[in-house]
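Lab notebook, bench 4. The sequencing result for the construct came back, and we need a structural model before the next group meeting so we can plan mutations. Quick request posted to the team channel:

Model the 3D structure of this chain.
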Amino acid sequence: MTASARVEVGGVRIAYRRAGQGPPLVLLHGIGGNAVQWVHQLDGLADAFTVVAWDAPGYGGSDDPPGDWSMADYADRLVGLLDALDLERVHLLGQSWGGVLAQEFYRAHAGRVASLLLVNTFGAGMQPEAERQASLQARLRALETMTPAEMAARRAPLLVAPGAPASALTEGEAMMAEIHPAGYRLAAIALAEADARDVLPRIAVPTLVIVGDHDTVVPLVASEALRDAIPGAGFAVIEGTGHLSSQERPGAFNAIVRDFLRGISLAPAAG
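Done. Here's the predicted structure in token form:
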């Protein structure tokens, strides 16, 4: 059974969903998502893990941030949520924007991370500056000219692979239609400014990069570059999926997560 709740962290109320018992697995959604993005993981992995999916500040049932935020601010609220839930060390899984946040979280709170799963995402700061700024301006223009529902109707079909289940497209469009314009704007700016290039070579926990073979938002080459920047990182390609691989083929996605996490201890590394 999945339970929903809110806790106050640093003056911001944060909503989250929690299911299951076992080693904690914390799920970080993408820039157009919220905790609903992980419904198949909350259902499908709860037999083996305590699965926690948050609404980042500015998303879902969480408060909008009070002013401009950086990725470090989101990471601070995330560690506050872990403290409130009495989760000391966790497996951290982030998709797209959430994957960039996972990289920033590791910078500040490496001791709280037992493993990293970086899904349909890229190494923060590895893209050319012009590309980052172009993406930011496109998102800001969309906010100025469309409603969230209009943005979702235009964007969602680009997030799934050809032939993806209709349910994945429906889910993607529905969750994007729920974005808070103010929260989305702040998240987009934080993403454009994020730079974890100094962090990636220092990652010292088991790490897996997961990508959909039809992802046009974060193409395969970007995921490969992320893998190559992290010592010893593994790599998994989910065939027939795009940017929303966890929703397009949840069975295959969950099996990869299970296999990777099997045997990874939550205990801190010696020394």
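The beta strands are 3-9, 12-19, 24-28, 50-54, 90-95, 113-119, 207-212, 234-238.
Will bring this to the meeting.
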